Amino acid sequence: MIEFRDVNYAIGDKQILKHVSFRIPAGEPRIIVGHSGSGKSTILRLILGLACPTSGEIIIDGQNICGLEEKRLREIRRQIGMVFQDGALFDSMTVGENVGYYLLEHTEMKLDEIEDNVRQMLGFVGISDEYLDRLPDELSGGMQRRVAIGRALLSTNPKIMLYDEPTTGLDPQMTTNIISLINRLMEHRHVTSIIVTHQIADAFKIGDRFIFIDAGEVAFDGDVNGLRDSKDPRVVEFLGPFRKSIAHVHKIDFV
Ligand SMILES: Nc1ncnc2c1ncn2[C@@H]1O[C@H](COP(=O)(O)OP(=O)(O)O)[C@@H](O)[C@H]1O
Ligand SMILES: [Mg+2]
């Protein structure tokens, strides 16, 4: 479980997060939506323990992650897979090296065993073997993001997956591919998944539990019906014309 308890976070005199509280039970997905600059990526940074709140607590698996000794924090981080918006692959390493890097550096696994794992993982994320020896910039943006998801999975065997804007900048077909991959992961591996997006149309295809962050505050936390029926002017403004069509949006299933 991931819990924020009255988290405030400031950089200098700028208040970024204000009294943020929420709770995400283990194995459940949450979609964090909000305008650009509202504080969504900051929430992921705090979950990773890259910064500590000014006040309040962040509890992961019953432990306040701020103030933990470095060794324990590393153990918690090992359970968290993170996929950044740009994929953030090593551009001088092949696709196979990117995905197998962690196993090569941090385990005693033999090379052919690593290659088996890499092939299997690439299959899982829908990248065929012929791309194993290609460099990332020979792949489309959507494929790079799938490789990044595969790398995160093979590096951490995560209990928690964090996705920051996984579909931003992708065309509709690639967006559908990435969303079905995220859904497949949630259903097959029961990882707690937090998906951050400012693209409301994509949010509805991923799941139906939302946390809406507005100017550093939780303006909504609940399901799709609650979101549609909310009279909060911040929610109404954010949803815009989408509000009316919510009932007709269907989650993309995995194939
Ligand atoms: N290192 C920083 N110094 C100052 N302000 C920052 C820093 N990082 C983020 N911010 C500010 O914090 C706010 C929230 O940023 P962020 O969490 O990246 O928003 P989002 O991911 O929702 O677009 C923004 O106003 C941003 O300008
Ligand atoms: Mg962001």
Calculate the mean pLDDT score and round it: 89
> What's the domain count?
1
**Inertia-based shape:** globular
The number of E-state strands comes to 10
Bound molecules: adenosine-5'-diphosphate, magnesium ion
Broad CATH class? Alpha Beta
Question: How large is the radius of gyration?
Answer: 19 Å
**Roughly what fraction of the amino acids lie in strands?**
15-25%
Order of strands across the biggest sheet? 6-7-8-3-9-10
Major sheet, described briefly? Answer: 6 strands, mixed
> Pairing-aware structural class of the strands and helices?
alpha/beta
CATH superfamily: P-loop containing nucleotide triphosphate hydrolases
CATH architecture: 3-Layer(aba) Sandwich
Under CATH, the topology can be stated as Rossmann fold
Written as H for each helix and E for each strand, in order along the chain, the element string is EEEHEEHEHHHEHEHEEHHH
As a percent range, the share of helical residues equals 25-40%
- Unreliable runs, pLDDT <50, ≥5 residues? none
Q: How many helical stretches? A: 10
